[in-house]
Amino acid sequence: MSCCCGHNQSTGRLFSFMARRFGKRYRKKGFSDTQRQLVEGLRREGFDGASLLEIGSGVGYLHQNLLKQGAERATGIDLAPKMLSEARRYAADAGLTERTSYVEGDFVAIAETIEPADVTILDKVICCYPDADGLVHQSLARTKRVYGLTYPRDRWFTRFGSRVNAVLMWIIRSDYRSYVHDPKQVQAWIEQAGFRKDYENQTAVWLTQVYSRG
Q1: 53, 158, 189, 200: which sits with the fewest CB atoms below 10 Å from its CB?
Q2: Minimal CA–CA distance to 127: which of 83, 82, 182, 76?
Q3: What is the mean pLDDT of the chain?
Q4: Rounded Cα–Cα distance for residues 122 and 77 (Å)
C-alpha cells in the first residue's frame, strides 16, 4: 500500500521548491560524503553496462554520474515534478537523454509498471517515506543484482531532528514528514529477500549500505 495522498503531494511540492538548490549545490561542491560512500560501494560491486533504477532520483546527478562512469542506462523515479524537469535538462546537457528515462509518481504505487534493473539506488529516500516496509520490499522486487541505500542512523539526535522537522512542517501546514526507521529492521528485510551486505560506511547522521543478491 502506498502512503497517503496528502504526504505525497506535500513531498512533491517541498522538493520541487528545492530543485534548483540541489542542482546548484552539486555543481558547486560535488557529491556529499555519503554519496561518495555510496558510489564507492557500488563501484566495488561493479556497474559497467548495468541498468540503474534510482528511486527518489531528484535532479539526477547521482545516476547520471554513474552513466558517465560506465553504466548503460538509468530510470529515475521522483514525486517532485520540478526535480524531474531539472534532471531531464541536466541529462540533455550531458548528452544522456537517450540513456535516461524519468517517471513522476509514488514508487510503491507504480512499482509493477517499472522494469527491473541491475542496480537499485535509494539515496536518503527511506527517511522521506512513512511505509518503509512497502518501499524496501517493492524496490527489492525490481532489483536484479545490487541494492544501495543511504538512510538515517537510529540515534537520539536523528530522532530529535525528525521531531523538530514535524513541528516545522506542521507550522507551515505541510503533510511532509521525515522518518527514522530502524536500521536493524531494514537490514533484516533486505537479507530476507536474498541479499547479502557487502559494504557499509557511515557519518554521524547517515548509514550507507550496499547489498548484492547472494
Answers
A1: 200
A2: 182
A3: 89
A4: 10
Which three three-digit cell numbers place residue 201?
560506511
Residue 85 contacts residue 62 (beta carbons within 8 Å): no
Mean pLDDT, to the nearest integer, of 176-197?
A: 92
Q: Which long-range contacts (CB under 8 A, 24 or more apart) does 182-191 make?
A: 182/154, 183/151, 183/153, 183/154, 183/207, 185/132, 186/126, 186/132, 186/136, 186/149, 186/151, 189/133, 189/136, 189/137, 189/140, 190/136, 190/140, 190/147
Tens of pLDDT, residues 83-103 = 899 999 999 999 999 999 999
CATH number, residue 14: 3.40.50.150
Residue found under cell 527517511: 127
Cell of 172: 507551515
pTM of the entire predicted model: 0.89
Helix (H, G, I), strand (E, B) or coil at 30: coil
- Within 106-152, residue ranges assigned H as helices are 107-110, 132-141
Residue 1, pLDDT above cutoff 50: no
Q: How many domains does the chain have?
A: 1
For residue 104, give its domain range. Answer: 5-213
- Give the alpha-carbon dihedral of 57, 59, 63, 65, to 10 degrees: -160
pLDDT tens string 16-37: 666 677 777 777 787 889 999 9
